[in-house]
Amino acid sequence: MALEPRDVVYGASTTQSLQAHFCPLPATNWTRRAYHACELPTRSICSVAHGAVAIVVGDYVFIDGGEIALGQQSYPTNGSMLNPTYDPVALNVTLSLPLAESWTPDKVRFNVIIKPGMPLWNFQSLWHDATDDSLWAFGGEISLLASHDPDLGIWNMKLNGGGGGTWTQKSNFRSAPWNQNITRPLGGVGRSTNETAFLLGGYSSARSSPFTGDLAGFVPTPGLLTYSFNYGTWANVTDTPDLSPSGAIEWPGMESVPFGPNGLMVVIGGETSDLTSYTPGGEERSMTEITVFDPVTLRFFKQTATGDEIPSRRNRFCTAAVGDGSKDLDGAPSGSYEIYIYGGYGGNLGPGAEQYDEIWALTLPAFQWIKVDASHNSARIGHTCHIVGKSQLLSIGGADAAQSDPWSTIDTAFQGLGTFDLNGWNWTKGYDANAAPYKRGGALERFYQS
User: Fold this and answer.
1) What pLDDT, on the 0 to 100 scale, is given for residue 42?
2) Per-residue CA distances from 105 to 29, 330, 358, 392, 417 (Å)
3) What is the tens place of the pLDDT at every residue in 256-269?
4) Rg (alpha carbons) of the chain, rounded to whole number
5) Closest CA to 185 of 117, 125, 256
6) C-alpha span between 73 and 86 (Å, rounded)
7) pTM flag (> 0.85)
8) How far is CA 84 from CA 13, 29, 339, in A?
9) For the segment 82-101, what is each residue's pLDDT rounded down to a tens digit?
10) In angstroms, rounded to a whole number, what is the distance separating the alpha carbons of residues 189 and 252?
11) How do the residues of the chain divide into helix, strand and coil, expressed in percent and rounded to 5?
12) Torsion of CA 115, 117, 122, 124, to 10 degrees
């Protein structure tokens, strides 16, 4: 069964229903990406992960973009997999994953949000406008499977409170902002506050904008791009000397933390380059060199992280931040705040490469690295992570970097979903909607008590 790039795959058909059942597969099934959606009557399978992005809003995780491989396999009499083939398609819907009830990856249901006319993007940023309760999508590049040209539009989805919403285009590349030397980067990292969206670093490619179609390689887009939800205005902050010597950064992690009058954005890891070109696997940033910036004043400064052990240099890892919620009499945070990182990429894949299968915590305000004492999961690359259910880390998508060809091997994470208990520091079988609030423990607590 071959699907065109604009077809939608859910459940046992390609009809546009409002809900998709991403269902359990036999252990012998082959996948190219890290999500499985299955069509049981034909034993064909789908997987989604490459280029997908996600964000938590209220009782839902919204997942957008990325590519699917529809796999068809035959089975000999012993039940093992034989001669797998796949037809790749691009995901042209947004998915939402419910968080109000507990679930396990083999039985969870995803809501499906149709987005007619929206480009097929990979690695875009999703921002939440809390005032309007809507999502904004910008950045990234068009899918390799897309037949249309890239544009520079920014899209908005008004949420309906039930895991759905409606996407509309708010501007395109002919609008005024693109006269300000603003372009669509990929390989950057996006976050937002209540009023402003941020997209840090990244680079341009032949598939990232209508103005870069003749690029043979990758050109860095240095500095920080901002977008005002209230006014619809853009700005490009290029004065970032404490980010890197050139101001360029690719594939870092970034999280918002509630310290100081305006909060702070904390930037970890990634790669740097000059302003001429970017080559993946180049100069990695030290994990002891942390960049922090104020989201209101837009001032950047450096902070050194320490620890008995330090994570090795890496990029394309995931981050998620959480605190215990304690406050002083003035309402300011009085406890610690942890940024957890999981997985990553150091320039090589396969069993002989360094395996980024561990979890680390950067605890603030001490800026101390603590290695999480937990059994190792698969080495992940290109995934996203999120705090869900008060005290759980949810890993979505990506691939097993321990495989020489991770796109054509069985994924150890069912449906691409992994759940980690941040209180007990252990991987679990599924999401617990009734989990206890987050409380630092283990080596984190021993560090603060020492």
Assistant:
1) 29
2) 16, 42, 21, 14, 6
3) 999 989 999 999 99
4) 21
5) 125
6) 9
7) yes
8) 20, 9, 39
9) 445 555 677 788 999 999 99
10) 7
11) 5, 40, 55
12) -80
